[in-house]
Amino acid sequence: MLRGFHIILLTIILAGASYIEAPLKAQAAADEAYVWNKAVTGGGGGFVPGIIFNSSEPDLIYARTDIGGAYRWNPVDNSWVQLLDWMGFEEWGKTGVDALATDPVDPDRLYLAVGTYTNSWDPHNGSILRSTDRGETWESTSLPFKVGGNMPGRSMGERLVIDPNKNSTLYFGARSGNGLWRSVDYGATWSKVTTFLNPGTYVEDPSNEYQSDIIGLAWIAFDPSTGAANQATQSIYVGVVDKNESVYHSSDGGASWSAVPGQPTGYLPHHGVISDNGHLFISYSNGAGPYDGTKGQVWKMNLSTGIWTNISPVSSTSDDNYYGYGGLAVDAQHPNTIMVATLNSWWPDAIIFRSTDGGSTWTRIWDWNGYPDRTLRYTQDISAAPWLTFGTNPVPPEITPKLGWMIGDLEIDPFNSNRMMYGTGATIYGTSNLTDWDQGKKINLSVMAKGIEETAVIDLISPPSGAHLISGLGDVTGFRHDDLTQAPAKMMTHPNSTTDIDYAELDPSYIVRVGTADKSADPNAKSIGYSRDGGSNWYAGNSEPSGTAGGGKVALSASGDSLVWSTSDKGVFYSKNNGNSWTASTGVPAGAKITSDRVNSNKFYAWSAGKFYSSTNGGASFIQTSATGLPIEGDLDFKAMPGVEGDIWLAGGNATSGIYGLWHSTDSGTTFSKLSNVQEANVIGFGKAAPGGSYMALYTSAKIDGIRGIFRSNDGGASWVRINDDQHQYASTNSAITGDPRIYGRVYIGTNGLGIVYGDALSEPNPGVNPAISPTTAVFDKKLGNQANIPVSMTLNGNTLSKITNGTVALVQGTNYTVSGSTITILSSYLAAQPLGTVNLTFQFSAGATKVLSVNVIDTTSTTSGNIQVQMYNSSVISNVNTISPRIKLTNTSTNAINLSDVKLRYYYTIDGEKPQNFFCDWSQVGSSNVTGSFVKMTTAKPGADYYAEFGFTSGAGSLATGQSIDLQIRLSKSDWTNYNQSDDYSFNPAASAYQDSPKLTGYIRGQLVWGVEP
């Protein structure tokens, strides 16, 4: 319990405050066991803003990253273990870790403050994750505000702390003006401390959304000597990101707070550490970091006397101080020994300072020895990640590798004065002979990031020869991965960034890559580079489109004789001379996404804003195809199938637009078919075909049968298996995916901060024992007199039939089908109850691949028709939805104009729980306000219908001319937004992904049925 009746708390009741964060196991399609690993970089590849040692147990160490989760040190092999690989796709923001606390009383307890952005593009509030087994399992509490693990000031800290005397009490310093928060029940619930009145004032740049948020509270520090076991610590200090008043103190266990007298002003407190000999040390910078800061100071305050002393290694008034101070450490065994690092000394290198007399005097890790020479107090070993040279050959006084940059945290092991670690923008460096510094000897720095894989993946390719994987990455450009278990020797250069990469399918050693060249450093640098040896070596292009900053997408023709580059700023260009000159392509919008046909070197394809384009002259000109129904916005990834001309797969869309999924074209993009068995898909890739198969395996990050995961199809998308599991979800998996064309079952997955993931199938199908069915397609006519059972012959090859499913619903033997020997008979009574369109029945066996019977359900019964045609599809085809959303196309097929006010349309469904209902028309050419809707409860319920929604028009809608069509985008919902189960609704058609005739949506003119069949 918190002590003192003067404490005023604003208590927030958090609904569902405690729950298991990892989602419950659910069956999505079939599951197949895989083994998962990460491609080794050896160095991490991203910013490590926090390293936290447990103060009561040796070798219990954690690291937090800005977008790549959190890690626990494994002393057995001096590596790090990722703790958040289980985070799901929808919770991608929770891999940004803004603060971490390890319990000094109960070392098994661990806490994370997670959430990546406080800006609008992260829709989720933050959470406190809590574990009682060092991160093996987690519970979560949702916070009523956002948390910013990748926001400015992210290496300040720590913002989340545990009372060292009463470990049930925690404090968290929030961003965005949300102030100080406290938990008294081990982090399960949180309340705002309303007596703490300064939530921070500092904003980096009000004109830039990313930098415009209040950074808030920077760190919290307890003075353990002011408490006792199981009694709350009384003296607490808080650092606030405020240049006027930044350090606050409570002497009564958090009941009241006041600014500390005599404190420095004009700077921001980056770290605050209390030493065992009664001093508060603070590193200051005039910027929050990790990128900014041009001046800084270091101060200490005597906790007994309140006296402040400026102990800056270099005075802020000196021209030699051109940086802020970030990482700060006090040796727990020798409290007068302190270290501090420059946060932003970019040139010629970072500087680390060390004092053994409480800051009275300092030594530097390097000193000038007659410009441009420097004397180094260290050696540096990067053999664990040789690419940390960044492929540079700098001119002295710069050297490579650098000590680092963005050194926002530096820590001395509280149990071993010789061990020190610090985080940089690319890795963790450390030493095990730190005290040799004090003897005038050199300390040995080495990479201490084994197991950390923090790369943000931009693109992945797996060519049919050479290295099995080549990656394009954020921050560290990318690698040729000759051995996935070993760190690459060097990173790719020319250019020194990557936005896209492609290879020539018929000449795979020829690879092209685009990025954004740093013109300020080298005005002649090019944003495109080439490799002729499979990515081992790169050379810069001779030219680029005039004025471009680079970036964008690039495509290389199958034979490598044509290039198409969709730049980020100047449009789409093509080259027929290996990039020596560029010409603007015609007929294709600027910013279009592009790819090449993998067989025909003259063909290229493009997508922009829902429209698809093709070129048959090497990218010189494009023509829009007739393809419709493609995503207009959201994620978009499309690729052409190797070995099959004109075969294209396209994944993308988003839930907001209602257009989301996976599409396939076999006619060079002239038309696309949407796969009805894939609800959402973000990326698509191809790998080696299954044994006995000829069509490459498909891989996607998708939602299938309502479950998010990584899926593989061996039969061209007819059926899918989920190949990941709930402990291997990797948050954002929407950047890149590719199978391996030489290893069946191998898939490479790009993540946003969790590295390059690759999976291998544990078993390989044997074509000699695979079962088969015949036929695989059939037609069923609902017309009475035409209805007939469908017999299916099975070749079992020693297997047994496990079940037959329609989506997620298993058919019932004896009711839906019968079995006689190796023959299955699908009963007409079952098929007659299915909606019109394609019904896919999946046969699952004890071993081997699943098989699919595709039944085209039609109805040749004469329907009442004339004057109008009604076509429809449902924008959401999952069973349980809180909104029924028909998309309707109404066409006048008569010879005269029709007054729309005379027309009514009826959509039949079951309400699944009587509630008031709402009608919405989101869009129509005649104006949404001119479309009416009402709900009618049927006097007698019919199969699939106890209600119908009737849509009509006001007189303001006007008339519909002969041959003219209009669209209606309708939504129906219950007033409390509870779900409908639309799977059995009469008018629902799960098989339609584009407009098709809809006889179950009836049409009337002046009350007379003129279209469709009533139930």
TrEMBL record:
GO biological process: cellulose catabolic process; xyloglucan metabolic process
Transmembrane segments: none
GO MF terms, alphabetically ordered: cellulose binding; hydrolase activity, acting on glycosyl bonds
Domain CBM3 as annotated: residue spans: 864-1015
Keywords on record: Carbohydrate metabolism, Cellulose degradation, Glycosidase, Hydrolase, Polysaccharide degradation, Signal
Alphabetical list of Gene3D superfamilies matching this protein: Endoglucanase-like, Immunoglobulins, YVTN repeat-like/Quinoprotein amine dehydrogenase
Residues of the signal peptide: none
Matches recorded under Pfam families: CBM_3, CBM_X2
Family the entry assigns: Belongs to the glycosyl hydrolase 74 family.
UniProt-recorded name of the protein: Xyloglucanase
